Amino acid sequence: MESTHFQFALSELNLNVSQIESVMGYKQGESQETISDLISEVLKETEAICNIKGEYRILSDIQFNDVEKTIEINHLVFQIKKIVYGLIKKSDSIAVFLCTAGEGIGIRSKKAMKEGDLLTGYIYDVIGSEIVESAADLMQNELEKTVISSGKKITNRYSPGYCGWDVTEQHKLFELVPSNFCGIRLTESALMDPIKSVSGIIGIGENVRFNPYTCNLCDNKNCIYGNAREKN
Amino acid sequence: MEDLLEKLLEAVELGKVDKKSPYPPNLKDQDGAYELAGKALEQGCKPDEILEKALIPAMANVGNRYSRREIYVPQMLMSAKAMGGAMLHLKPFFQSGETKRKGTFIIGTVTGDLHDIGKNLVSMMVEGAGWEVIDLGVDVSTEKFIKAIEEKPSAVVGLSALLTTTMENMRKIVADIKTKYAGVKILVGGAPVTMEYCKKIGADFYSPDPQGAVNYLKNLAS
Fold first, then answer.
1. To pair with B177 at 20 to 30 A between CA atoms, which of A134, A202, B116, B198?
2. Residues B123 and B183 in one domain
3. Are A96 and A59 in contact (CB under 8 A)?
C-alpha cells in the first residue's frame, strides 16, 4: 500500500485575517483593529514555527454492513454510525488521511497562555486549527484530482469524534497506517500529538458526492464548529 | 469616587488595560484599569468597593454579553487582561487578608486531555467574580484534585474535558472526590458535556458557558 505525502508552506494555504476572525465568530468588519492587528502579527510569526504535513493512503479492501451501519476496512470494523454511513456507503475505496500543522504552534499557544497572554495564546490556537483544516482541504483537492481521471468522485472527510462516530475508533484508524504516519502519535485517550492534527476517512467512488453542508446533518448541539457557523 | 469606579468598570468592560494600551481607540492616552484602580485606592476607596462596584460588575457584563453572543472570546480575554491590571493593586490586600475572596475554586482539565482554552476562560471569569482560583492545568489526575482539596476543603471544584473519551475520566474523578469529600461541589463543562451527563456522573452543576459557572458560584456564596 503506497502513501501519498504532502508538505505545505503556510503561504500555500492563503490564510488571512478575516478568515481567522470569522472562525472566532466575527462577522465581516465587526472585529476591532487591535484584534485584527494581533492576528496579523501572529500569522506572520506562525510561518517560522509550523511544519505542515499531510499523508493519505487508499484502501480498497472494504465492506459495508447496512444493518449495523459499519464499514470494514482491511478487516477492521468501524462503527461509523448512521450519518457517516449514509454519506460514504456508495464508496468503492476509502482514503485514510492524517494531516498536521506540526508541534510548534501548539507549544507557542500554551507558552503565551502560561505567561498570562491568553488572547495571543487563543489566536495561535485558532490559527493552528485553521492551518490543519486548510491543509486537509488542499490534500483533499489533490486526492480529488487523482481519482477524477478514472471517473470517480470523493466524499467529504469524516473523522472519529464527529457525527456520532466514537472518538476511540481513532485507535483502529491508526492501525491502518504505519506508525509515525505523518509524524503524528496517538495518546491513550485518542488525542493526537501534535494537538493541531486531523485524521479521518474520505470515500471514493463513481456514485458518491461531496456535501458542502455537513453541519446540518449532525445533531451534536454542543459542537464548537456548529456553534461557530451558527454565528456567521 | 463613584465617577472613578464607573470609569474603571468601563475600562475593564472595554478591555483598556493601562494608559499605554492603544485599545479602544476612543480611550487612547486615557487611564486604563491599572491607573484607575491605583487612583481609587489613593483616594481612599476600599479594595472591597473596587471589587464590588467596578471589577465584578464589569466582568459580569462581559460574561452576560458573551452568553448572549454579543461579543466573542477575544473581547472577553481583553477584559480579563484589563481586570488583571486592576488586580495588581488589589493582590496585596488579598494576601494580607484585609480583603476576603468569595471562596476558592479549584479547576483543571481531566486526565488524558490537554485542551485548556475553555478552562482558562472559566478561570478568568471566576477570578473576575472575586474568587481565588487554583488552576491545576491540563491532564489532571484524581490524586492532584484530591491533594488540592485537602489544602482547601471548602473549595468548589471545576472539571473540564473536550473529548468524549476524556469526558469518561470525569466520571471517575467525580466519584473519587465525592467518596472522600461528599460535600464538595463539582462543576463540569466542555464541548461534549451536557446537563444529563452531569447528573448521570453525580456532579453538581453543568454550564455551557463561563457565566453560568459564575452565577452558580455566586448562588453558593450568598
1. B116
2. yes
3. yes
Distance from the B63 Cα atom to the nearest Cα atom in chain A, whole angstroms: 16
Q: Please report residues of A whose CB lies closer than 8 A to that of B117.
A: 113, 121-122, 125
- Over range A202-226, report the average pLDDT: 71
Task: Tell me: do B120 and B207 sit in the same domain.
Answer: yes
Partner residue facing A33 (CB), from B25, B72, B193: B25
Local structure of B203: helix, strand or coil: coil
CATH class of the domain at A3-231: alpha beta
Q: Do A222 and B191 touch (CB under 8 A)?
A: yes
**Which of A180, A128, A160, A154 shows the shortest CA–CA distance to A5?**
A180
Q: Where a domain ends, among B65, B96, B127?
A: B96
Instruction: Render pLDDT for A37-68 as a digit per residue (tens, 0 to 9).
Output: 999 999 999 999 999 999 999 999 999 999 99
Provide the β-strand partners of residue B205. B187
* B55-107 residue pLDDT tens: 999 999 999 998 898 999 999 999 998 999 999 999 899 888 888 899 999 99
Contact state of A119 with B78 under an 8 Å Cβ cutoff: yes
Q: Mean pLDDT across the stretch A110-122?
A: 89
- Last residue of a domain, which of B96, B121, B144? B96
Chain A hits for B114, CB-CB cut-off 8 Å, are: 191, 195
Q: What is the enclosing helix (H) or strand (E) of A204?
A: strand A197-205
Domain boundaries, chain A: 3-231
| Nearest neighbour of A189 by CB, restricted to B73, B81, B112 | B112
CATH code for the domain in which residue B125 is found: 3.40.50.280
Tell me whether residues A34 and B23 touch, CB distance under 8 A. yes
Question: Are residue B162 and residue B65 in the same domain, yes or no?
Answer: no
Strand ranges for chain B from DSSP E: 104-109, 132-135, 156-160, 186-189, 205-206
Q: What residues of B are in contact with residue A110 (Cβ under 8 Å)?
A: 116
